Amino acid sequence: MTEQQQNPSHAPSRVSRRYVLGAAGAAGLIAGGAGGAFGAAQLKEEPTALASVGSSSVPFYGNRQGGITTPAQARGHLVAFDLAAGAGRKGAAALLKRWSRAAEEMTAGRVPPGDNQIALDAGPSSLTVTFGFGRSFFAKTALAKQLPDALAPLPDFPSDELVAAHSNGDLWVQIGADDALVAFHALRVIQKEAGDGAARLRWQMNGFNRTPGATAEPRTARNLMGQVDGTDNPKQTDATFNERVFVPSSGSPEWMAGGSYAVVRRIRMLLDAWDDLSLERQEKVIGRRKSDGAPLSAGKGGTETTPVDLDKRDADGLPAIAADAHIRVAKPESNSGAAMLRRTFSYHDGFRDDGAPDAGLLFVAWQADPLKGFVPVQRKLDGGDGLSRFLRHESSGLFAVPGGAGKGEYVGQRLLES
User: Is the pTM here over 0.90, yes or no?
Assistant: First the structure.
């Protein structure tokens, strides 16, 4: 594991211009991981002082790209692009070079050449910029022989209500930062660098999480339904973590070694209908207490990390965890061990014509093989999860995210120069 995965809040080794302007008075360099992708048991460091949020940085170079095991940041942008007609492999390579150069500058807190100075007085704020390739990218760049088998189209799920214009794409970029202005700045730079005729924007989604330091101690995030969300994520300490999340060095194709596959879904929550349920009914739908995330099989005791007992019965002899409870249907034990690393953002895009909030989850799931991770789990959730009645899957995409770049390289170089 690289230093990037071991210490994502590693401070800059030298003082950068943006860092001097924005974080010279920062007190300490404490990791900003509150509300991250991993359970509270894994996040036991001291609370992040708000003054240190801007100074935290995630190295761009490394064996793996940032933004996968990095604790989820407070702000996020998910963006897809389509290559311009005639751009081909040469145009794609030039674009990835520009994007990688700009991302390296910004994640270090430096100002890219020709910058519009939106974030001039800010530190790096744990910025990550992650790049991936959609299935359609390979035909447009004459790289069909390098198309991974795992990048097969996702199946149609019966409950999907997908909008084609907001799904898929040739190129995908995930931006995360603990400061909204830093995240927007990175988004603006990425969009401008694509604006020379190399690629055009296909869709963009904007999300948020709890700000590091906003709670007395680091906690697992809550989603917009108010539920603790992410407890059962695989942990980096798990013996099988790397094999579930990352493509092995012996994997095929070779250019994906150390990479991962991202399933991206925009999932609207029917919050008005959810809020009409009683607290007891909400907890039965999920299978956990809303107050602290403890499984209902723990009775009146337990904590968020108490193991779920799917065989436990309540005082009436009924299953403590209902047959259609979300945690029962989604649990790896119920899916032949299938698991993925969920790293999500919430979103709110205003209100619909009926007055209901257009809000929910920007679902990003990382796995070594989506045919063994996301697909079987979603098939089961689609048919038997009580929570599905309160969700609408409105956009979808699957992207091959290669390993990281070394110094002097750009992301995707092993593919584009193969």
Answer: no
